[in-house]
Amino acid sequence: DEKDWNGSIALLGTLRSGNTDSSLFQFNAGLNRQWVSDRFNATASASWGRTEEEQTAKNALATTKWDHFYNDDLYSHGRVEVEHDEIKNLDLRLTTGVGIGLNVWRGDDAHEGLDLEAGTDYLHQRFDGADAEAGLAGRIAVVFKARLFDTWLLTEDCEIVVPVGDPAAFITHSQTKLETSLSGRWNLQNILDIEYRGDAPTDTSALDIKLLVGLEYKF
Q1: Residue 17 CB neighbour total at 10 angstroms
Q2: Is the Cβ–Cβ distance between 102 and 89 less than 8 Å?
Q3: CA 154 → CA 132, 150, 204, distances in Å?
Q4: Per residue, what are the HEC states of the chain?
Q5: What percent of the chain has pLDDT over 70?
Q6: CB 169 within 8 A of CB 199
Q7: Exposure of 72 by Cβ count < 10 A (0-12 exposed, 13-18 middle, 19+ buried)?
Q8: What is the pTM of this model?
Q9: pLDDT value at position 18?
Q10: How many other β-carbons are positioned within 10 Å of the β-carbon of residue 12?
Q11: Long-range contact set of residues 51-55: C-beta below 8 Å, sequence gap at least 24
């Protein structure tokens, strides 16, 4: 069904004080539009965090994605993603890609479904103090949506990107989102964000985990 422009903004974070002082805040924004045969989605996020006076999070991420449907289940897509992360020493990661997607299950509720995607990306990235790297990569993604107990919405978005020239440099990313309506357009969100990089640069961790709780406003 065709849907007009809509979007959301959210402020999430974690805070700990006492034996250990730590804080992590993240701002998310999204914009969506759906036509009869096409779908557009754009997101942006920025994170900032400190632990015991040490900077532990400082990054920004923006993505855009366009889907074109050939029937109710089959679609092609194009996407662009830009990321900067000072803690990971990542000056820039630019990803552009195309591929196909297939809806393998759609429930009775609007927030129930399972989509599988596969495609080819062009990956360009530059780390602090190192030469830029660029090349083709394969991408596989899964998006699962379900309604729990009539009041909670679960979204699992998982992908793996594998460079053709260096498969050991793969990147996996998983985001699990659980949200429920509080009042009107306000929602309570819980997000578990996990990223693992196969060949993380020296002095950076291969595994990065964020657990966030906050409020979202939909418009």
Answers
A1: 8
A2: no
A3: 37, 11, 31
A4: CCEEEEEEEEEEEEEECCCCCEEEEEEEEEEEEECCCEEEEEEEEEEEEEECCEEEEEEEEEEEEEEEECCCCEEEEEEEEEEEECCCCEEEEEEEEEEEEEEEEECCCCCCEEEEEEEEEEEEEEECCCCCEEEEEEEEEEEEEEEECCCEEEEEEEEEEEECCCHHHCEEEEEEEEEEEEECCEEEEEEEEEEEECCCCCCCCCEEEEEEEEEEEEC
A5: 100
A6: yes
A7: exposed
A8: 0.90
A9: 77
A10: 22
A11: 51/20, 51/21, 51/22, 51/23, 52/20, 52/21, 52/22, 53/21, 55/86, 55/87
Q: At 27, list the tokens.
A: 């701002």
**For residue 213, which of 197, 199, 192 has the smallest C-alpha distance?**
192
The pLDDT of residue 122: 97
Token reading at 180: 């429920």
The residue assigned the tokens 């997101």 is: 43
Token pair of 78 as six digits? 């194009």
Residue carrying the six token digits 């006492």? 18
- SS3 for 169? helix
Count of CB atoms situated within 10 Å of the CB of 200: 17
